[in-house]
Amino acid sequence: MADHEAKANQCMIDAEKKLKSSQGFFGSMFGGVQKQEDACELYQRAANMFKMAKKWQEAGNAFCRAASISMTLESKHEAATNYVDAGNCYKKVDHEKAISCLQEAIEIYTDKGKFTMAAKHYISIAEIYENELIELDKAIENYEKAADLYRGEDSTSSANKCLLKVAMYSAQQMNYAKACQIYEDVASSAVENSLLKYSAKDHYFKAALCHLCIDLQNAQIALQKYPETFSAFADSREYKLLQKLVAAIEDQNEDAYTEAVKEFDSITRLDQWLTTILLRIKKSISSDPDLR
User: CB under 8 Å to 156, separation ≥6 — which residues?
Assistant: First the structure.
């Protein structure tokens, strides 16, 4: 490890010397561009040595130096690659710097029309906000940006994966109307695709639960509409659970509600999101006048 770090530090020193010698009148006259390219390569070599030594901050800094030189040389694709590499290093030690580097890469990819690449890195930023910084508003924002770019490239499947994240977190933040709309749109898209058709059941189920979080009437309308759109939904365990939940809410019967959820959970294990939403609906049985 120490040997890798020592080699990395020497590469940094050599890179600084190369860069300095490229500057000024005489530097630009006598191989200035070549010296900058050499310096860029040395910074990249240093960054990889720092990675091997697990010096993530230093590795990120070295990749950023390489990116800066690449931008000066108008090598934008290489600059974007260096920014992404820097971001991946910073992810381990400095999340804000990681986001900043990925945003630099996105700007370059967008400018060059590489929208799929830009979308990929919006997802990376969203995941940092989602898993590390726990800032769901910003995670939603970046998943939406990724989805927009994927849709522009007709990558419907990739766009929908991002939108489902948006729906999940929107529901967690009690923006149920937004979540409903996304789940319904993605479900409608899935119904039209023979490979994705089965997944529509899950999306309609989650949409209906979000409707129940809004009010009973919304859910009742959904339970009439969804089987007409996707006939297989009417035969699903999810649909049968929804019918029982609606009946329990109409009767203000918390025991029946709990029993229906327990029965469903014994066959299809509830994940954390479903558990949270179902508990919110249960609490509203006696507290929300719209559900009486």
Answer: 150, 189
pLDDT averages per 10-residue partition of the chain, 292 residues: 88 90 52 83 96 97 97 95 98 98 98 97 98 97 98 96 98 97 96 89 97 93 93 94 96 95 95 96 72 40
Backbone phi, psi, residue 224, to 5°: -85, -35
DSSP 218-275: HHHHHHHHHHHH-GGGGGSHHHHHHHHHHHHHHTT-HHHHHHHHHHHHHHS---HHHH
Residue 86, phi-psi category: left (phi > 0), alpha (psi -120 to 50), beta (remainder): alpha
For residue 226, CA distances in Å to 202, 219, 245, 263 come to: 12, 10, 16, 23
Chain region(s) in the chain for CATH 1.25.40.10: 175-292
- Both tokens assigned to 74: 């108008």
Q: What pLDDT score was predicted for residue 32?
A: 65
Q: Residue 185 corresponds to which tokens in the numbers above?
A: 């749109």
- 133 DSSP assignment: S
Integer Cα distance of 10 and 18 in angstroms: 12
Three-class SS of residue 109?
helix
- One of 3.30.365.10, 3.40.50.720, 1.25.40.10, 3.30.70.1450 is the CATH number of 175-292, namely 1.25.40.10
Q: What pLDDT was estimated at residue 285?
A: 82
0.85 exceeded by pTM: yes
Sequential DSSP letters for 15-84: HHHHHHHT-HHHHHHTTHHHHHHHHHHHHHHHHHHHHHTT-HHHHHHHHHHHHHHHHHTT-HHHHHHHHH
Count the neighbouring beta carbons within 10 Å of the beta carbon of residue 72. 14
pLDDT at 30: 46
Structure tokens at 108: 């370059």
